[in-house]
Amino acid sequence: MTVLRRTLRTNARSALRADSLIRTALLAQLADPGGEVWLVSAWISDVDLVDNSDGSFDLLLGEDTPLRCRLSDLLIRLARNGTAVRVVTQKAPANAVFLERLALAESKGMNLRVFLDENIHEKSLVGPGWMFSGSMNFTRNGLARNKESITYILDEQAAAQAVMDYQHEWTASGV
User: Which residues contact 168 (CB under 8 A, 6 or more apart)?
Assistant: First the structure.
């Protein structure tokens, strides 16, 4: 099995931006739903990830497609379409809008669960066979402005191990 790994260093002036990488991964997951997606970060803003003003993503986004799709919108659509979505973050004012949107979806019985952990500092996004990890929080500055180091890994074994670790840490412990 070939493992693909690439570390990117982003900043506001470079052509490499983390938001485009995250958007691509989540849209690909939406195209082939299933498994679990874990978003783990102390700080998460409900950033705009998809500009659908021209209808380019209507097929992937399904019914009632928005013109702009935020991070919460993509996670909720994933949960609605068969991917288990798990989010680990802190209860902080900066995360409030994002958490409110997820709480509404969680209350509607979607396969989406939020774990609040005041000690979280890890920053990662993991799905079936892929993962991002690095210095970047999932905020406007983290995704598009700050100088960040992000490693993107295509490795089923590493992603599965991360999911098992997360399940053990948060699902089993009931944080």
Answer: none
Q: Cα–Cα distances in Å, from 2 out to 58, 65, 154, 156, 164?
A: 33, 36, 9, 10, 21
Q: Which residue shows structure tokens 């195209």?
A: 31
> Rounded to an integer, what distance in angstroms lies between the CA atom of residue 104 and that of residue 90?
17
**How confident is the model over 46-68, as pLDDT tens digits?**
988 887 777 777 677 777 776 78
Q: Give CA 17 to chain center in angstroms.
A: 15
Sheet containing 130-134: order of strands? 4-10, 148-154, 130-134, 124-127, 36-40, 84-89, 112-116
For residue 74, what is the DSSP state? Answer: H
pLDDT tens readout for residues 90-115 = 999 999 999 999 999 888 888 999 99
Beta pairing class for 148-154 and 4-10: antiparallel
Gyration radius of the chain over CA positions: 15
Q: How far apart are CA 170 and CA 86, in angstroms?
A: 10
Q: Give CA–CA dist 59/160, Å, rounded.
A: 29
Element of type H or E holding 114: strand 112-116
Which tokens belong to 41? 């970060």
